[in-house]
Amino acid sequence: MTISYYLVLAAILFTIGAVGVLVRRNAIVVFMCIELMLNSVNLTLVTFARAGGTVDGQIMAFFVMVVAAAEVVIGLAIIMSIYRTRRSASVDDANLLKY
Amino acid sequence: MPAEGLLAASWLLIALPLAGAAALLLGGRRTDRWGHLLGTATVVVAFLLAVGCTVQLAGLEERAADVELFTFISAGDLDVTAGLLYDPLSAVFVLLITGVGSLIHVYSIGYMAHDPGRRRFFAYLNLFVAAMLLLVLGNSYVALYVGWEGVGLASYLLIAFWYTRPAAATAAKKAFIMNRVGDVGLALAVFVMFAQLGTTSYAGVHAGVATLAGGTVTAMGLLLLLGACGKSGQFPLQAWLPDAMEGPTPVSALIHAATMVTAGVYLIARSAPVYDETPTARAVVLAVGALTLLIGAIAGCAYDDIKKVLAYSTVSQIGYMFLAVGLGPAGYVAGLAHLLAHGFFKAGLFLGAGSVMHAMDDAVDMRRFGGLAKKLPVTFVTFGLGYLALIGFPFLSGYFTKDAIIEAALDREDAWGWVLGGVAVLGAGLTAFYMTRLMLMTFFGRPRWEDGVHPHESPTVMTAPMIVLAVGSVSAGALLVSVFPLADWLEPVFGEPEEATHVVAPVVVGLVVTVVMLLGVLAAWLFVGRREVPVTPPVRVSPVTRAARNALYADAINESLFMRPGQWLTRALVWFDNRGVDGAVNGLAAGLGGSSSRLGRAQTGFVRTYALGMLGGAVVVAGALLAVTAG
């Protein structure tokens, strides 16, 4: 098998995620873009594990998923509470923590 | 050799007055009623003990006793033991200090009877006696230094005894600071000993000094001389001594005439082996002595303040002593004999001046005295005997001791001998002039008293010490020359006195000095005694008189040479501290604060900005990694 296809796909996914984080304002969308980046990394890990014939990368991917699940719980809770107080899900509106 | 018997208890000499001072200072007002008696008793007991010690010392074969007390400093190679050395040289000083000290304590009972600070006065006086005895009894330069600073402290406290008077407070500060200049020299000399010889005991230093390089010894000698000049009011540090007369008169008599100011002579005499190795430093001692002798005598001719005249006389007489000890082995005994005789007659003269002030409501201006001989007969006679002793009237003490110095100077057998001898003879003439002027203005002529002044003779408690000192003034010289020859007594310290070959026969010297002295007396009579003394000093006077009235501009020179540049320096340093040091620190803090508040602007609060930053950083790191691995 050629791993370059998988890696290019992972790179495209990561780039979409990164650009999405940078250009979108809606917190939910930014959040989903982060998930996208995590999963592109997972893809890379699994690809290398498969190519190398080891399971290290697959185990690492599980860890990433666990962390991502925990992060989703906390992140969504934060977004919910911000939305409740400010009636907005735009990341640019939550800018009080500054100089 | 180790001390036995009474000599082993010689530490009591120091401990007794020290205990007296502690009792009076710590006892507070409870001791007000009897404190002065305790203070006097400690010194009198110390005197009796000193007499006992000296008698025992005279019976010893070696005539020197070591008293080991305790280890003072012990650190690595440095080992300073506190110990006392009772030898003939310290013995004569101990007798002078406790003897004259006792008399002056007794006198002070009368003089300070009505002073509210009497207890404090006696406490400080006891403190002085203790420190002075430590100075002369210590067996090392460190012990001497401790005593040296102790007498400096006592002197400061006593000059400023009437501290509410601005003049007294200023004079005390002046004395303290000028002494400090000298003390730095002494301290440095001790450091040189530590560094070069690793010991400061007299025995160790004097044994090791011959092994040192010539330059080191000369430096040591000059530094010791600087210390001696500060304490003894010698050129160039002579200006504090006349101002020190702001203190009570017994203090002037004890500290600033008889004992403390002669500590410099003691130091140089004690350091004889050091000066033996360095003719340069010894020549400087000579020059200082000769110069101060003249400065003091010239200034003494112009002052109207009775105590200041006596103070300049002290400066001048100590100049004689420096001249003598600067002559080397030939002069030590002559200088010390003059020191002892001077201790008697100058203390007597000061006590007499105190008695006059007592009678004249504390006035010191001789232009407002006059005709006191009849009103104060005892003071007149005792003061007169002291006066005759000081000017060197034949067969009184000054005659013997001053002639011995002049002879020793002439015996140098070179041109300088003639110069020094000439200076000393000239000084004798000037001494006769200013002292006769003082006598004429105070005791003779028409009374010029202020209104409401009724002179009366002092009480017996004051006149008795004056009488004792007058007897001493008359007899001390003859006793030291013939009955108890000082030269034989000091032989263990300075070695066998050489049989000097006299350039000029002593009889001729005596005649010349007497003639010069009589000329001085005659001049004083022509200038002062013959006509009416004006109550206010004449304004139109010659430049010489004006210079003498300003003590040859010593204060002005000090002020323009040291004080003003010192003030400029401090001002420059303050400026540098404020602008330079503080500026650097404050500037650094301001720079950090400013840049951090500017950096803080980067915290915009926009999450996406931070995200871009993280991405940028990650890209840079990844790029760098790639570059490294690829390269």
What can be said about this structure in brief?
The complex is a heterodimer of chains A (about 100) and B (about 625). By secondary structure, chain A is mainly alpha-helical. Chain A is built from three helices and no strands.
Structure commentary:
Chain A has 3 helices and no strands. Chain A is mainly alpha-helical and 99 residues long. Chain B is built from 25 helices and 2 strands. A two-stranded antiparallel sheet of chain B has the order 1-2. The N and C termini of chain B lie far apart (88 Å). The mean pLDDT of chain B is 88.
Largest interface: A-B, 14 and 11 residues
Helix content of chain B: over 70%
Q: Kindly state the number of beta strands of chain B.
A: 2
Succession of helices and strands of chain A: HHH
Q: Please provide the ordered H/E string of secondary-structure elements of chain B.
A: HHEEHHHHHHHHHHHHHHHHHHHHHHH
In terms of structural class, how would the helical and strand content of chain A be classed?
mainly alpha
Largest sheet: spatial strand order of chain B: 1-2
Largest sheet of chain B: 2 strands, antiparallel
Number of strands of chain A: 0
Name a few traits of the molecule:
heterodimer; A: about 100 residues; 3 helices; about 80% helix; elongated; B: about 625 residues; mainly alpha; 25 helices; 2 strands; globular
